[in-house]
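Support reply, case 0932

Customer input (verbatim):
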Amino acid sequence: LDTAGLYRGYEGYSQCIENLDSLIVPLYETCQENNLALVITSDHGMAFPDAESRGGAKSEKYASANEVRNVPLIILSPNIKQQRIQETIGQEDVAPILLSTLGIADRPAFCEGKEKNLKEYAVLKVVSPGITSMKLSSSGKEVCSGSNDSMYYITGLEKNKQYTLETVIDSSGETYKDTLSIENDRVIEIKEKDENQDSTTSPENNMHLVGGILIGVINLTGLTMIFRIMRN
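Our regenerated output:
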């Protein structure tokens, strides 16, 4: 499309876009028929001073045009309502948005992006270290329950609502209960307590102790060097 904008003018550029639109229609219909999500995005567009001019995007006279500044992210999916959002997002937001659209509660480990409230419901994933029974309730009424599994996906949850999650690990009988405020997709990881491990000697506490010692050694070394420099 950039080449068309540079060398074919406004009419040629518009014709290329129309031809591309016609090619997307069969793909869109296939996604609809098979309950699939279709995601379309692009680079920046081209701006034209007039119908006879060549298009551009980089120079100052083009850079402020909406065609250049607005980069589309089009998501067509059965589980999101049709809407148009005029908002600036970063590249780091794309992964959380797509994962949320696909109903996947997990997020990349070091991703700082934020999902958008495109879905009208939330997904809750519950992960346990072993076979676990689970019950989710709200306002004293059971929403769902399950047993004989270590991982549960709960979808269709109403947002901005409080839920109570109760689990029992079959092998140990250990229980877990927590009140959750569901605003977006969430992952709850149930961890089994180690009765033989003293909290004062846990790996986390040991790491804190080692870190404190290293910081003390570094500070002491720095003070010693400063003292020697001052004496010299």
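We compared this against your earlier run and they match. Two observations from our side: The domain at 121-189 is CATH 2.60.40.10 (Immunoglobulin-like). The mean pLDDT is 84. Please reopen the case if you see a mismatch on your end.
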